[in-house]
Automatic annotation (TrEMBL):
PANTHER family: PYRUVATE SYNTHASE SUBUNIT PORC (PTHR43366:SF1). It comes from the Bacteria. This is 4Fe-4S ferredoxin-type domain-containing protein. PROSITE patterns: 4FE4S_FER_1, 4FE4S_FER_2.
Length: 296
């Protein structure tokens, strides 16, 4: 059996990525099981999803604690000790990271002993879809690492994307983006392990600590400690030569994280700016530029 765990943030498409992989495996004749696990938070909060793939019926249930493959859609998750995405990766397993770092740099930076595959799928998504939505792209990466075929992935993306999108052109772009990621990854060997029979053909969920599903809400007064701006795709950058100091951006920021410096110009607290870019949209003179964050 192959056990795959996906980590990302709410809104990036973690659940659909796990479904694309499961559906591709199913189209190829395997038994497949996929499901997400949401915490009690919001868009941008750490999300986990799981896919099991097997030649035999899957009787195992519950979260995947010891994955063979870990797919990380958002590199900033690696800096979050509460999300702990690398936990209990099997020996001989594989970690994929959506990053601008090379595999060697990412391996060293995050101290990963097992094999690391790195690719900037956010860039591919922005180029093909025009949005940082990573679901089908991460599904493409995972399908390649799992050793599935191109035609199975194509059919899976069409099925899964058509269930959430009515625009046929966007479905076709998702197929293109998924295949682009699929072929950007070299085929590799992944060590699989035996299916586990837990004693009952009915759902038999092993106990898992609450920290896995609600990692950030078990202490009081922790909100000021959370840096809510650590998962931006773009950040606003001010050009003071154009700025008229009208203060529209200060008033419109939904996070209230734009302050004014001693010269009367606005600046943001990047630890908490979530990159919504409302300030960029609202500035009447175009004095704020959106700039891609390239490294976590
Ligand atoms: S990008 Fe959004 S959160 Fe950040 S400063 Fe602009 S309005 Fe505020
Ligand atoms: S909205 Fe634009 S012009 Fe007005 S203060 Fe902000 S950056 Fe300056």
């Amino acid at each position: 059996m192959l056990r795959v765990r996906f980590h990302g943030r709410g809104g990036q498409g973690v659940k659909v990525a796990s479904r694309v992989l499961g559906t591709a495996a199913f189209f190829e004749g395997y038994h497949a099981q996929d499901f997400p696990l949401y915490g009690a938070e919001r868009r941008g909060a750490p999300i986990t999803a799981f896919t099991r793939i097997s030649h035999v019926p899957i009787l195992e249930r519950g979260v995947i604690s010891e994955p063979d493959i870990i797919i990380i859609l958002d590199e900033t998750i690696l800096n979050d000790p509460l999300a702990n995405p690398l936990s209990r990766l099997k020996e001989g397993g594989v970690v994929f990271i959506n990053t601008t770092h090379s595999p060697a740099d990412a391996k060293e930076k995050y101290k990963i002993a097992e094999q690391v595959i790195a690719l900037d799928i956010t860039k591919i998504s922005l180029e093909i879809l025009g949005l940082p939505v990573l679901s089908t792209l991460a599904g493409g990466v995972a399908s390649r690492i799992a050793g599935l075929r191109e035609d199975s992935l194509k059919k899976a993306v069409e099925k899964e994307a058509s269930e959430i999108l009515t625009d046929k052109e966007l479905v076709a772009k998702n197929r293109e983006a998924a295949l682009s990621c699929f072929y950007a990854i070299q085929p590799i060997e992944v060590k699989t392990s035996e299916a586990v029979f837990l004693g009952s053909p009915v759902a038999n969920v092993p106990f898992e600590p609450a920290m896995i599903s609600s990692p950030a809400i078990n202490t009081t007064g922790n909100t000021p400690l959370r840096r809510t701006g650590n998962w931006r795709v773009f950040k606003p950058v001010w050009n003071y030569e154009s700025c008229t100091r009208c203060m529209t951006c200060v008033a419109r920021c939904p996070d209230g994280c734009i302050a004014v410096n001693e010269d009367g110009f606005p600046f943001t607290d990047y630890d908490n700016c979530k990159g919504c870019l409302i300030c960029v949209e609202e500035c009447p003179v175009g004095a704020i530029e959106k700039v891609r964050e390239v490294h976590a």
